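Minutes, project huddle
Topic: does the predicted pose make sense with NAP bound?
PN asked that the exact inputs be recorded in the minutes so nobody has to dig through chat later. Recorded below.
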Amino acid sequence: MTARILSGVEVAAALRAEVSAAVAAHTGAMGLATVLVGDDPASHVYVSLKHAAAVAAGMVSIDRRLPATATQAEVEAVVDELNADPDVVGMIVQLPLPDGIDGDRVVERVDPGKDADGLHPLNLGRLVLGRPTVTPATPTGILRILDHYHIATVGALAVVVGRSFLVGRPLALMLGARGADATVVQAHSRTAGLADLTRSADLLVVAAGTPRLIGGGDVKPGATVIDVGTTRTESGLVGDVDFASVVEVAGAVTPVPGGVGPMTIASLLANTVSLARQRRGSR
Ligand code: NAP
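Predicted holo structure (tokens), as shared on screen:
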């Protein structure tokens, strides 16, 4: 069997077209701000991609950069300034922040009503409680891929490898919430018998950051496999899934690159549109 390839590029293009239409229909500027601190090359690439996508969607992109020597107070002052700017609808603090800066405190400083990443504790708390909220971009993008390809989650056994607050933990909550209704097992680096678990999964999501952690022998025949992992190597971007062997066993699989990555950026833009609507509704 050769698995169906789930193209994040295709789903992201459809979502970005929806976002562009919503931005065009919006009265006034829709500003998306990014805060980038330091010189991490990967962070610079991600922020540039986010800007290009925001501009392409017709948003106003506000790019705030601080040197690696910036203090906690200086970073928080920029967040305060963007919180107070009426043209800023959504804001992203690019993580990780350099050593010496308390990232949790910076994320908590973002106005929850401008939290395009869905990572503010108030918004994550709403997610836990099952209340409407902006949800973290990568898990949201994964659910959109499943929805686009009509992959049912109700009653499915979903194994999520990884428990970060950015990906694994919110995704497990979202898959187990009413509506998605999967039965979720969350695995991590201390999980015993990982391969036995992954082989039982109808839906396997791997967000470990360990290149080729999952091979064809770790996958149930016909399962859906979502590869979140992105590790930069000399031969390019490598996922957590050994694509060549998994594609022979799975029913559907996302590639790296071209799978989850494009959905993360498109979902950030969609979150910004949601924040704009939320703000209009609260006026
Ligand atoms: P993270 O904060 O490092 O978390 C990794 C998680 O995986 C941890 O919970 C860790 O367990 C678990 N883990 C690590 N090695 C494992 C192993 N051998 N077996 C089982 N579990 C293991 O990383 P993250 O931010 O969630 O990101 C994960 C990956 O996704 C990275 O490659 C990242 O670059 C990528 N990513 C991609 C996108 C995208 O848009 N495509 C977005 C975000 C992240 P412990 O908790 O026990 O340490």
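Observations noted during the meeting:
- The longest helix spans residues 260-282.
- Residues 123 and 187 are 24 Å apart (CA to CA).
No decisions taken; revisit at the next huddle.
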